[in-house]
Design a protein that fits this description.
Chain B: InterPro entries: ABC_transp_permease, LivM-like. Chain B: This is Branched-chain amino acid transport system permease protein. Chain B: Pfam families: BPD_transp_2 (PF02653). Chain B: The chain crosses the membrane at residues 37-56, 62-80, 110-129, 141-157, 187-207, 237-257, 269-299, 311-330. The complex is a heterodimer of chains A (387) and B (344). In chain A, the strands form four sheets. In chain A, strands 2-1-3-4-5 form a five-stranded parallel sheet, sandwiched between helices. In chain A, strands 7-6-8-9 form a four-stranded parallel sheet, sandwiched between helices. Helix content of chain A is 42%, strand content 17%. Chain A has 387 residues and is α/β, with parallel strands linked by helices. In chain B, a hairpin with a 2-residue loop joins strand 2 and strand 3. Helix content of chain B is 75%, strand content 2%. Chain B is built from 16 helices and four strands. Chain B has one domain: Orthogonal Bundle (ABC transporter involved in vitamin B12 uptake, BtuC), CATH 1.10.3470. The chains are: A alpha/beta (387), B mainly alpha (344). Chains A and B meet through helix 1, strand 2, helix 3, helix 4 and helix 6 of A and helix 3, helix 4, helix 14 and helix 16 of B.
């Protein structure tokens, strides 16, 4: 039995030594180390996969062009599978063992939130690619994010409604994480746009028929429009049922369905549906003088040249924005020193990314406004810009 | 289900163990080699020496995660390895402990040292109430029932966002003891180590007590054990509650250590991971549970550098171990060592 223990001890020691890398001394010629943790596998892989591909592709391009402030970039990435506990351990590894200069990543709100206490203590800038408004509200000194929030999607929808003179709105939301969060945000911002929520129904993400809820909404007195915060197949079914029931009011979907897949699933019923979405979705349809046009066209053609036509998604765009913002901040600061880069990130203004124009400040670590979203309408099985 | 259980109770085998035990009484050296004395000493030695080789907070983090997983797995091993009952819902108890600590401290201002036993008490009660109907089932049905419990806990945690923060999880305030904030690898290393030693001590004592013998009896042949006068239901319930409480305590530790909890802690895959650690390390072996937890916590970290090949390599290692060491790592290796020792 002694042997058993010595064997165990030996194995433990070997494992520990294998774990321990040697910490390199940071010299000016060393590469700038960019840490990343993304959900490349698992249920959120549709986010993490394009994000990682984007980071890899553009870091190679920056290195090819001579690097940043004379230093090459090195990407260190770990796959979280969308698991917050893994994200936490990997973030610790990035901070403590890989000694990264910045962390770009966190595909989901959960994985991002798990890591925030660590980066705040380590004082390393962290740019998240996740949607939740809780990431930057309240503002944390070292945490930034690139994608627009649910709250802004609600705002954009209500703004459009105001322009059309609509004020009585029915809500039908999915009960998944996305739908639930957006429903709460919509309820909160509605008064700011003089919108009254006259009906509020929900459905489970796996439901296959929403006629009952929609019938109830249809019979609501004074209904002028319906909003459907949701994700996945639910909104497509809502759209179909909505058409079958012969509503005479407009239907608004969320940015959660901003993909060609939604039009395929909903078919004819999708005609006339409006939704807020990132400019990337309608890159080719943007007017020639649009500030975002060169950026989103450039990103789209580069990505699709590498991974095939139609492969580009807004999620990869979030990673592009994060990397480019970091690049801009390092160039502005003249070094990769974490504190200086943080200052520079906070001072970013007039930066044009795939999500829109970014103007950061000490109390806004997102820096996007409603203009980041474009209001789209589905016509003839394709997106069109609503002016 | 039957073939993943270790060989059960038999008079013949028992006698062998007994003579071996008698032998150990003979010399202090042999006593040192027994699991209770020698194993414990070796464990204490490893725990004491490990900080010398841990270079940074990340490595502490891995060591602490091993400890936390091991506490759950040691409890689960009592249930699976000794009582022969399977549970696919232990991540649920783990998560309940974690959320009890998170909610009681952040929303009700309770001290962490108080929230942990309260959580454990709650989980213990819940396990007790559930155990009676659930443990009447066996085999696949028992697995299904415990799986159901785990899934229900997971759903409740994700849905009741006003209390639990929903799918995005919630923060846990750092624990303070006498004005000192418990943060950092070193402090938590010693806290988790203390709980781990306690868990192992409890486990080894339960196994060597009349309860342990009764458990092995009911594992081997429930009817025979009942005929022999063993109150099988009582023992099953007892060990189920014990393992649930251990999972809950580990969950509380995890919540305070990581300062963040998500419903993933209660996920089905997390439950499966715990069961895999038991089987991989070796069922009906307390140190096997510890080794299983250690290997399956460290391996993914080591393999993370292989990026997309990680899962392939991990799968290959696990398959190899399960094919060539079906009884699990520790029982197979110690069996080998013993046989070689006997030849000498």
């Amino acid at each position: 039995m002694f042997k058993r223990m010595t064997k165990g001890l030996l194995a433990a020691t070997v494992a520990v030594f294998a774990l321990g890398g040697t910490a390199p001394a940071v010299a000016q010629d060393d590469p700038i180390r960019i840490g990343s943790f993304l959900a490349v596998t698992g249920p959120a892989s549709f986010l993490g996969d394009p994000e990682l591909k984007t980071l890899e592709m553009y870091i190679a391009r920056i290195n090819g062009a001579g690097g940043l402030v004379g230093r090459q970039l090195e990407l260190i990435h770990y796959d979280t599978g969308g698991d917050a506990n893994k994200a936490r351990t990997f973030a610790k590894r990035l901070l403590e063992e890989d000694e990264v200069d910045v962390i770009l990543g966190g595909s989901t709100t959960g994985t991002t939130m798990a890591v925030i206490p660590l980066v705040e203590r380590a004082e390393i800038p962290f740019i998240s690619f996740a949607g939740g408004v809780v990431i930057i509200d309240p503002v944390k000194p070292w945490v930034f994010k690139t994608p627009h929030t649910d709250r802004m999607a609600c705002g954009k929808i209500f703004e459009d409604m105001q322009a059309r003179g609509i004020s009585n709105v029915g809500l039908i939301s999915g009960t998944g994480g996305f739908g639930k969060s957006m429903r709460a945000q919509c309820l909160e911002v509605a008064p700011e746009y003089d919108i009254e929520i006259v009906a509020d129904e929900t459905y489970a993400p796996s439901d296959t028929d929403m006629v009952a809820q929609l019938t109830k909404i249809k019979n609501t007195e004074g209904l002028e429009a319906v909003v459907n915060p949701g994700f996945g197949q639910g909104p497509a079914i809502v759209t179909k049922n909505f058409a079958q029931l012969g509503f005479e009011v407009p239907l608004y979907q969320s940015h959660g369905v901003a993909s060609k897949k939604f039009i395929e699933l909903a078919g004819e019923a999708a005609e006339g549906v409006r939704l807020p979405a990132a400019a990337l979705l309608v890159a080719e349809k943007l007017p020639m003088d649009d500030l975002q046009r060169p950026i989103v066209m450039g990103y789209m053609t580069t990505y699709e040249a590498e991974y095939g036509a139609g492969s580009v998604s807004t999620f990869g765009g979030h990673a592009y924005d994060g990397l480019m913002m970091y690049k801009a901040a390092v160039e502005a600061a003249g070094s990769a020193d974490p504190a200086a880069v943080r200052e520079a990130l906070e001072g970013i203004s007039g930066f044009i990314g795939t999500a829109g124009e970014v103007n950061m400040s000490a109390d806004d670590h997102l820096g996007l406004d409603l203009s980041a979203f474009r209001m789209l309408e589905i016509q003839g099985g394709d997106w069109t810009l609503v002016e | 289900m039957a073939d993943i259980r270790p060989s059960g109770y038999s008079k013949h085998r028992k006698k062998q163990t007994y003579t071996r035990r008698l032998g150990t009484r003979a010399s202090p050296l042999q006593m040192l080699m027994s699991e209770r004395v020698g194993g414990m000493l070796a464990l204490l030695l490893v725990i004491a020496v490990l900080p010398l080789v841990l270079a940074n907070n990340y490595q502490y983090d891995v060591a602490i995660t091993i400890g936390i997983n091991a506490i759950v797995v040691i409890g689960l091993n009592l249930l699976i390895g000794y009582a022969g009952q399977i549970s696919l819902g232990h991540a649920g108890f783990f998560a309940l402990g974690a959320y009890a600590s998170a909610i009681l401290t952040s929303r009700y201002g309770l001290h962490g040292a108080l929230a942990m036993p309260l959580g454990a008490l709650g989980v213990g009660l819940l396990a007790y109430i559930m155990a009676r109907p659930i443990l009447r089932l066996s085999g696949h049905y028992l697995a299904m029932a415990t799986l159901g419990v785990g899934v229900i806990i997971n759903i409740v945690i994700s849905r009741e966002a006003w209390l639990t923060g929903g799918p995005d999880g919630m923060y846990v305030p750092a624990m303070e003891v006498w004005g000192v904030e418990l943060y950092g690898g070193q402090i938590w290393y010693w806290i988790v180590a203390a709980f781990l030693v306690l868990a192992i001590w409890i486990s080894l004592n339960v196994i060597d007590s009349p309860v342990g013998r009764a458990l092995r009896g009911l594992h081997g042949a429930e009817v025979a054990a009942e005929v022999a006068g063993v109150d099988t239901t009582r023992y099953k319930v007892m060990v189920f509650v014990l393992s649930a409480v251990m999972a809950s305590v580990a969950g509380s530790l995890a919540a305070h250590f990581s300062e963040f909890v998500t419903p993933e802690k209660a996920s089905f895959f997390h439950s499966i991971l715990f069961v895999t650690m038991v089987v991989f390390g070796g069922m009906a072996s307390t140190f096997g549970a510890l080794v299983g937890a250690a290997v399956l916590t460290v391996l993914p970290q080591l393999l993370a550098d292989f990026a997309s090949y990680e899962h392939m390599i991990l799968g290959l290692i696990m398959m190899t171990v399960m094919i060539f060491m079906p009884r699990g790592l520790v029982p197979t290796l110690s069996g080998l060592a013993r046989r070689r020792g006997a030849r000498r």
